[in-house]
Amino acid sequence: MGLSGKTTVAAALLATTAVLAPAAVVVPAEAATPSASAGLDGSGGHAAVQRALDAAVAAGVPGATVEVREGRNVWRGTSGVADLGSGRQVKAGDRFRAGSVTKSFVATVVLQLVAEGKAGLDDPIERHLPGLIPAGKHGERVTVRQLLHHTSGLPDYLTEVLIKEDRDALRTLRTARYTPRELVAKAVDKAVKTGWNFDPDEPGKWGYSNTNYVVLGLLVERLTGHDLGGEITRRIIRPLHLKDTSFPTSPQLPGAHMNGYEWLDGPTAAPTDLTEYSPAAIWATGTLISTTHDLNTFYRGLADGKLLPPQMLREMRTMRAMDGDRPGRSYGLGLESNANYCPQQEPVWGHSGSVAGYNTYSFMTADGRRQVTLALNRNLTKSTEADTATRGIVSAALCG
């Protein structure tokens, strides 16, 4: 899950369950305790970011952690608790589930393979994965570029099928055992029964679909002969020394981490701890585990040309406007551009992540001078006030 993230998934849940509207909740007193570490310049001058961070916790998010970079200066702030049971406060190096930030990693690997001549951006996916998508009027036209760009028209197996059809999906998917091909098959079955969301690369059409990136994950495995997680590790994680980043195959979240929570039974009920979660239902769309430091390092490495040749990076950052529900936002090849955080500046770029229990934002200014990565351990059921505070954190960090 990602850009459609909270809005789409929450809407699907509310359409099929009796879950109450989210609201601020009472958390332990420790949850409101701020913590910040000064930047490398010793200034610690990010009061607006810290205030917004504390506001998110005051609005019902158990905990949050952020890293802001300005050139060589780094500032880290935290607020709230990582574990509601023990009351342990969030620490700057805590790991979390990064959600659809995973898509930037997958897209990078795909573009590396394109640069190596193993595939072309405009290759029909049928050439590399015959039979995966029925080669009819629509299927034979789907290309690698369209999958990366979310312009394939394929239905989203997650929000349009699994979550829509299961009244308690966020709980049941915790132990899911789907294979990637089974996930694609669910989207294809929906397309056969009710039609594609739109024709592949139809002018003016754009539609976020997690199915696209499952197909791309399978493409990576077909082209390399290795599993997707292994390729992400070999091509990105190791070269950039992302020591706290992994592509898990088990439900556990290793090392020091923030627990993830949702209030699935209503705002006055006890929260549901969703920390342990099977990666099977999200795989190439949102499985990544990381930290604020590692994600900033990834996007910095990407911007500095450490991962892609210039032509591929230009392709990646060639944006197309999203649908009408997302004004000011555009999407490239695994990257989002957002003009709403800093309206007086050029749009920032990066990606957001949205999975059960975790919400992530990782963005960089157009000139590359500022970066922010933010993670919270409540997502789909957080309040409107918390959403407003979250946007305030990103804006305060980037707009300066």
TrEMBL record:
Record keyword Aminoacyl-tRNA synthetase present: no
Keyword Ligase: no
Ranges for domain Beta-lactamase-related: 50-387
SUPFAM superfamilies recorded: beta-lactamase/transpeptidase-like (SSF56601)
Leader sequence residues: 1-31
UniProt-recorded Gene Ontology molecular function terms: hydrolase activity
Keyword vocabulary terms for this entry: Hydrolase, Signal
Record-annotated membrane-spanning stretches: none
InterPro entries in alphabetical order: AmpC-like, Beta-lactam-related, Beta-lactam/transpept-like
Listed name of the protein: Serine hydrolase
Biological source species: Streptomyces mashuensis
